[in-house]
Design goal:
With 477 residues, the chain is an alpha/beta fold. The chain has 15 helices and 15 strands. Strand 14 (463-468) and strand 15 form a beta hairpin. The chain is elongated and about 95 Å long.
Length: 477
């Protein structure tokens, strides 16, 4: 049974979807006004991991993550660059997709854009007005926090404390400083849409409420995002969705990832203490970056530093080497024949232990550090027993287990592929195997010059040979 920490109830709960094995999951995506920083990437990776694990456990996940493509920051940036907001959005959506691809993030079932759902936003605002929890003020529409008794249920904020000492500015139309905009009246030079209250655009919080409801219904299972979204964004989402559709709990489970920090300070564009995801991915192994982002528990802060990324690269190499050890031994046994030793029994036992340990850790609120610890223990078992194993079936099972569990974390240790079709890869394999046989024959005949030449030429082609007591193994790279 999976347990997860629900921000709304402030405790771990057993995961029980609303609709048997089907899971509706909405994760707040980027506001596409700038290049994503590596702190943003942590959220992308964390919720991709959670989705993958739910799927591994047999759930059918419908995964939605949006693009906020109309927002104050987008308007300001577009004006500075002298381009349309829509052009700015296309630029940074393309960058997000590239970053997501390099971090091996599975494509969402749908990536809705806020501007595609303006009519539904207007409909939801009309429902809130009809239920008496919003008001119109000179073309703006505000949510009336005083009319929603459950306000603060997610963040724990006291609505009365929010208003204490706060003032409404002379240019603001809202009745109470706690109220927030559902619709903003048109301003010169800004994109706008027709509405019953005049031309304008939606408030940020309204966008996610509508897209979540449109694709997943109300209520749905999981809503995720960074801790900085708990208040006011997610708090306001709950208020307006509950008010519009008269439901107590519009989302069953709220999950939030911790910040990526630099010297214990939150990484953010506003503070100027950030690295773009592009900078990091251009300087470090992409899979090692993903491993680093999952190296701490998702709800806890994770400190960014070069040393940690270098250690992640070493860990990634350790994982790849273990997979290569299994592949190499399988290759030897395919030529040598099939046998059985105590090492095979030890590996078979290790397969079951790592799977149980991995699942136990991930079932406990997606504890990726514990899952990695189980995998590193399995690496030790591989390094101890694989070279003595005699059963290709057991070795293949070990490789499938290892590769499969790492795949749940979004890490790929599949054998290096060369460009071309599957048949061309098989031809390459056959050619390399033939050259290795010729090299072995030359060594038997003490023709070391020829043997060395074959090894060197293969090395120049990016194919490395390792000589073991049971014969040579090879890999690309």
């Amino acid at each position: 049974m999976i347990t997860l920490y629900n921000t709304r109830t402030r405790k771990k709960e057993e995961f029980e979807p609303l609709n048997d094995r089907k899971v509706g999951m909405y994760v707040c995506g980027p506001t596409v006004y700038d290049y994503p920083h590596i702190g943003n990437a942590r959220s992308f990776v964390v919720f991709d991991m959670i989705r993958r694990y739910l799927e591994y456990r047999g759930y059918n996940v419908y995964y939605v993550t949006n693009f906020t493509d109309i927002d104050d920051k987008m308007i300001d940036r577009a004006n500075k660059e002298g381009i349309e907001v829509s052009e700015l959005a296309e630029k940074f959506i393309a960058e997000y997709r590239q970053i997501a691809n390099e971090l091996n993030i599975k494509p969402a079932n749908i990536n809705p854009r806020a501007t595609e759902h303006i009519s539904q936003m207007i409909e939801m605002i009309e429902k809130i007005l009809d239920h008496g929890t919003a008001y119109v003020a000179e073309g703006d529409v505000y949510f009336d926090v005083s009319e929603f008794e459950q306000y603060g249920q997610l963040s724990g904020v006291d609505p009365e404390e929010l208003s204490a000492g706060a003032r409404v500015g002379v240019d603001e139309k809202k009745q109470d400083p706690r109220d927030f905009a559902l619709w903003k009246a048109e301003k010169p030079g800004e994109p706008s849409w027709d509405s019953p209250w005049g031309k304008g655009r939606p408030g940020w919080h309204m966008e996610c409420s509508v897209m979540g409801k449109h694709y997943l219904g109300v209520p749905f299972d999981i809503h995720g995002g960074g801790q900085d979204l708990i208040f006011p964004h997610h708090e306001n989402e709950i208020a307006q969705t509950a008010a519009a559709y008269e439901v107590d709990v519009p989302v069953k489970y709220w999950l939030h990832n911790g910040f990526l920090t630099i010297n214990t300070e939150k990484m953010s564009k506003s503070e100027g203490n950030f690295f773009t995801a592009r900078e990091v991915l251009d300087n470090f192994d992409n899979q090692a970056v993903r491993l680093f982002l999952l190296s701490g528990h998702y709800r806890q802060p994770l400190d960014y530093n070069t040393k940690a990324l270098e250690q992640a690269e070493q860990s990634m190499e350790r994982l790849r080497n273990a997979a290569d050890t299994l592949r190499g031994r399988i290759s030897i046994l395919e030529r040598k024949g099939i046998g059985h030793t105590n090492a095979d029994d030890s590996l078979r036992t290790a397969n079951e232990v790592v799977r149980q340990s991995f699942e136990r850790e991930m079932d406990d609120d997606f504890n990726s550090p514990g899952a990695f610890a189980a995998l590193y223990s399995f690496v030790r078992e591989i390094n101890t027993h694989a070279s003595k194993a005699e059963s290709p079936a057991v070795l293949r099972e070990s490789l499938a287990t290892f590769s499969g569990l790492l795949g749940v974390l979004g890490l790929d240790i599949e054998e290096s592929k060369v460009a071309g079709t599957e048949s061309s890869q098989e031809m390459l394999k056959a050619a390399v195997e033939l050259l290795i046989e010729l090299r072995e024959k030359a060594r038997e005949e003490k023709d070391y010059a020829t043997a060395d030449m074959i090894r060197e030429r293969l090395g120049e082609a990016g194919i490395s040979i390792s000589d073991t007591k049971d014969g040579p193994t090879w890999k690309i790279g």
